Amino acid sequence: MLDERKLKILYAIINSYILSAEPIGSRTITKQYDLGVSSATVRNEMSDLEDLGYLNKPHSSAGRVPSDKAYRLYVDQLLKMIKPKIDFDRKEAIKKTLLREAREMDQLLQNSARLLSAITSYTALAVSPKMKGAKIKLIQLVPIDEIQVLMTIVSDTGVVKNSIFRMNGPISEDQINTISNMLNDKLKGLPVDRINDDLANEIIMEIYEYKNVIDKIIPIINKSLEDVQDVDIYADGITKILDFPEYKDLEKAKTFISFIEDKDTIVELLLNNSLTQDIEISIGSENVYDPIKDCSLITANYRLGDRVIGKIGVIGPTRMDYYNVINNLYLVSINISEIIDTLLGKNR
Amino acid sequence: MLDERKLKILYAIINSYILSAEPIGSRTITKQYDLGVSSATVRNEMSDLEDLGYLNKPHSSAGRVPSDKAYRLYVDQLLKMIKPKIDFDRKEAIKKTLLREAREMDQLLQNSARLLSAITSYTALAVSPKMKGAKIKLIQLVPIDEIQVLMTIVSDTGVVKNSIFRMNGPISEDQINTISNMLNDKLKGLPVDRINDDLANEIIMEIYEYKNVIDKIIPIINKSLEDVQDVDIYADGITKILDFPEYKDLEKAKTFISFIEDKDTIVELLLNNSLTQDIEISIGSENVYDPIKDCSLITANYRLGDRVIGKIGVIGPTRMDYYNVINNLYLVSINISEIIDTLLGKNR
DNA sequence: TTTAGCACTCAACGACTTAGAGTGCTAACA
DNA sequence: TGTTAGCACTCTAAGTCGTTGAGTGCTAAA
Q1: What's residue A348's pLDDT?
Q2: Last residue of a domain, one of A228, A251, A271
Q3: Measured between CA atoms, how close is A42 to chain B, in angstroms?
Q4: B285 near B68, Cβ under 8 Å?
Q5: What whole-number distance in Å separates Cα of residue A312 and Cα of residue A270?
Q6: Total domains, chain A
Q7: pLDDT at B268
Q8: A79 in a domain, yes or no?
Q9: What is the pLDDT of residues B251-267, one digit of tens each?
Q10: Other C-beta atoms lying within 10 Å of the C-beta of residue A192
């Protein structure tokens, strides 16, 4: 669509703007890049690029700024070239950092967010493996005392969730154990979100002698299972956004930080888009949520085996260093998948 | 030390400054408060108060600003008058809000932070019950598969901690159960921080037939117990600090937010001071940590029975609305204690 | 089609002025 | 001796104004 010279000029502007955050003029381009044409020519081309929607002018006597459309073009190009080459030394170095003091999933993800934010100097996000779609590996009830019972659920994605509930009346250890075994037999291997009323009734039929107890327990379990579906969010480098001139405005900064602080929205942000692409990028106005309509979000999946179970992401101004972010996000994500495999793998 | 008129003028200045955040001049005082003297007299008194260290001047032709010493005087006075009266309607209203969707400890504390921040319009903090000093109510090992074992520890403060570890080789369910029962017998009722090498050796002696296995498990358990001592931090309203004119400076705002984001420091901040006083206040330079040397921190304890197990707090500019904060913090804290008692109580 | 030249635009910056709030001192007063 | 009116003085905040410089867009020539 764009001829080669226009593309060259556009990329030059994007590169300069990513570095300087200041509107780029025609002379800056001709001085910094050897295009073999004069600034007047560049000026004409820039005017065309503006008409085509790739550039914007903050005001009539300022230079040009890339539009979201320009970044989109640029990023799509980038994605084609970036994937094939993985720097293995770099990958192993990242792995080493990720494993530092990370014996469990939560520390692994915490480390990932921290590392990503440190490398990229943007805000980094990570979401813990989602229970939805995960299979129950272990469900267990343990009496804590006469009326309190601890329910523990372990998923095949390595997530452990606890829930304490109280019975209406005393209940014996034997009763609890019987029910616990029963539940385990029935539910092991099932997807978490398949536990519904029908299944509950089936369980009740099976151990009818404990009907009274089960009747009381099932709704509690169901309620607990709702909580169990919760995922955790790890965010790091939230204040880094304040370093960028586009966020020198306090009101903007506040909106952004509040947005990142809101766990529920971030979960939606990360999990509500498709899980098919390895690297997902939404630029500026492509974002659904108002507070980040002048940010870009880049996310990557991590997996257990071949199943996508969670996401990590980086969010920053639209003029972010896409190359650096995409590269590192990708490296971190495949490292996470590998580490999870060694933590949980070998045994499905 | 200060005569009555000086006190009256000082309090007037503090009150005005809390509201306006702007240096207070002698005329402002005489207009807003009926002191029965002229601005010239007030001027003389203010000069004295400055010499005594209760007031500061931003520059020679500006009004005066209260010093930390002034706030300390003011707050100590306030504390004497505030405690006795508890508004029971208000207390119950707060309780209702705290209990909304709060079936478990983490939600209760989350709600507390949210509510406190909403009421006070400052940043609110809550720390989950500390394991240190808590007694083990239940410790349990469950095999997840051939080599993975889930350890669950429940404390009498209602904290549940999980830890998954892998054995070097396969281990039978019976073995795990025997060890689990053994540990439970030995450790139940003991303070978490009393589990050390001596005790480990004792346990090993007792079930010598499993020595090989126990030898492998004990260090893993010890390592896990370290993690178990971790507490969680709930923060809410971090960005509220940006609403105050004293934080219009981006660099200051950044330092503050980064400080609040650093979980480890916040844990120290909340737990490292004495637990004896119900309400603890540190004003400006009284704070140990540089980033909050122009903030005031007010904390309150919450309890299980008569044992202090955690803290909540509010942090804001030194010119905070101490009366409002102290009052609400106190109400929230006694509500938390009451709710914890009904959640865990009756059974020590 | 490209380019040199030039008039025009506009934000950013510094210099300057003004307004206003406040202080501190002095001298008079109760 | 404490209080107060009066006044000169100080200093910041806000507004005005000209200047600078980067940049554009148009025109006409190469």
Answers
A1: 37
A2: A228
A3: 38
A4: yes
A5: 8
A6: 3
A7: 94
A8: no
A9: 899 999 999 999 999 99
A10: 23
Rounded to 5 degrees, φ, ψ at A164 are -100, 130
DSSP 8-state secondary structure symbol assigned to residue B34: -
**Residue linked to tokens 């000082």:** B10
Q: Cβ–Cβ of A254/B238 closer than 8 Å?
A: no
Protein CB footprint (7 Å) on chain C nucleotides = 2-5, 8-11, 20-26
Check if residue B59 sits with its Cβ under 7 angstroms from strand D: yes
- Calculate ∠ Cα A65-A70-A76, nearest 5°: 145
Q: Do A162 and B148 touch (CB under 8 A)?
A: no
Give CA–CA dist A76/B285, Å, rounded. 53
The pair of structure tokens assigned to A179 is 């029910």
Q: Per this entry, what is the length of chain A?
A: 348
**Whole-angstrom Cα distance, residue B109 to residue A183?**
31
Instruction: List the end-to-end C-alpha distance of chain B, in Å, as a whole number.
Output: 49
pTM (predicted TM-score):
0.91
What pairs with residue B149 in β-bridges? B143, B165
Name the residue range of residue B205's domain: 136-228
DSSP letter, residue A164 = E
In which band, very low, low, confident or very high, does the pLDDT at B166 lie, cut at 50, 70 and 90?
confident
Q: Does A167 touch chain B (CB under 8 A)?
A: no
What span, in angstroms and rounded, lies between the C-alpha atoms of B96 and B331?
Answer: 12
Pick from A150, A253, A261: CB nearest B154:
A150
DSSP-assigned letter for residue A241: G
Q: Residue A148 is part of a domain; what is its CATH number?
A: 3.30.390.60
